[in-house]
Structure formats: C-alpha cells, structure tokens
Amino acid sequence: MLKQLLPSTLLTLLLTVLLGLGYPLAMTGLAGTLFPNQAHGSLIEKNGAVVGSALIGQGFTKPEYFHPRPSATTDADPNDPTKTVSAPYNAANSGASNAAPTSKSYIESTQALVDQVKAENPDARVPLPVDLITASGSGLDPHISPAAAEYQLPRIARARGISENELRALVTANTEGRVFGILGEAAVNVLKLNLALDRRGSAAR
C-alpha cells in the first residue's frame, strides 16, 4: 500500500505547489508586467490621489456633474445583520435587485427614479434613456450611454455656465467605442468624463 500512497501523495504536493502557488504567482507577475494598470484595479488619480477605479461606478449627485446609472447593491444592516440596506456601488456585494419586471415594488421604485431624473433635468430635450433609471446586472457599471450624457447636458451647462456644444464635444472626446468595433455599444465612463469636466472649469463635487 505504501508504494501506491507515496507517489500519489508526492504528486498531490507537487501539483499543489505548481498550480496552487507557482501558477497564480506567475500569472500575477505577468499581468503586473504586461498590464500594470489593469492588474492594479484600473485606478484613476487626481492630483496624485486615487479618486476611484475606471471599473466601478460612483454616486455623483450634484447638478454640475454627469450622473451615473442607478445601483442596486446592498450591504448588511449595521443594526440588524440579518437584514440589508441600500449601499450603491458596493464592490464587495455586486449584484442586481433580481426583481421581476412585474414586481409592484420594482415598478414603483422605477417610477420614482423616472420622476427624480426628470425633476433634476427639467430642460432635457431628448427622451429619457433607460440606463438612467435602471441598474446594471452588477450594480457597479461605471458607464452611461452617449444618449444618457446628452440628456443631462442642459442641466450641467446651466450649472457650469458653459455651452451645451462644449459639453457635447467633451462627451464625444470621452466616448469609448465598441470593443474591436463590433462588441457591445458605445459608452462613456462617468468618472473620467467628470474629471475631464473639472479640468475645463473648477466645481465642487
């Protein structure tokens, strides 16, 4: 029996070291060398300080900024660990609401978002894009559609005192096309766009 146990034990140990330790370390080192920005979280800095990640949305709410799409992520209720509370863009608990389109609470919350977004953008001249009132599957999407950015132009132009055409040019300059020209849709990273907006004129977040 020892003859059978020894080789299998040694093989298990060898594979554990190679695949459980060596391979992950090699891939981590390779990724850090070839793709340093992505390997370290695609972090974005402003004046030498990290202000976020290009991969995770943030809750901009002030009128002088482009607003992101909603987030349905949650976190544990500090007063009752058996319950959850809303925690938008919580990267530790990525997920959607999982509510059915026919759910009464979902319909009511979506209508509330519609009313809120329309109230925040009373001068909008294009139809309300669906991504401004619905969360993504992850709840962390950092992008909005160019149409969602266009919808917000009048509000931001008024708050910043700059023309809509200037803002539109900024959106175009920060629009990311389809992956390989065929996958997905054009999108705008909200954090990058707002940082570019700040570089054109100071405003408090």
From TrEMBL:
What InterPro entries is this protein classified in? KdpC
Topological type in the membrane: Single-pass membrane protein
Example GO CC term: the record gives: plasma membrane
> Which residue intervals make up region (Disordered)?
66-102
Q: Is Membrane one of the keywords UniProt gives this record? A: yes
Q: Which GO terms describe its molecular function?
A: ATP binding; P-type potassium transmembrane transporter activity
Write down a Pfam family by its short name. Answer: KdpC
The UniProt regions of compositional bias labelled Low complexity, in chain numbering, are 86-100
**Localisation per UniProt entry:** Cell membrane
UniProtKB keywords: ATP-binding, Cell membrane, Ion transport, Membrane, Nucleotide-binding, Potassium, Potassium transport, Transmembrane, Transmembrane helix, Transport
Q: Where is the composition biased (Polar residues)?
A: 71-85
Q: Indicate the family of this protein.
A: Belongs to the KdpC family.
The entry's function note states: Part of the high-affinity ATP-driven potassium transport (or Kdp) system, which catalyzes the hydrolysis of ATP coupled with the electrogenic transport of potassium into the cytoplasm. This subunit acts as a catalytic chaperone that increases the ATP-binding affinity of the ATP-hydrolyzing subunit KdpB by the formation of a transient KdpB/KdpC/ATP ternary complex.
What is the protein's quaternary organization?
Answer: The system is composed of three essential subunits: KdpA, KdpB and KdpC.
- This one is known as Potassium-transporting ATPase KdpC subunit
Source organism:
Paramagnetospirillum kuznetsovii
Q: What is the lineage of its organism?
A: Bacteria, Pseudomonadati, Pseudomonadota, Alphaproteobacteria, Rhodospirillales
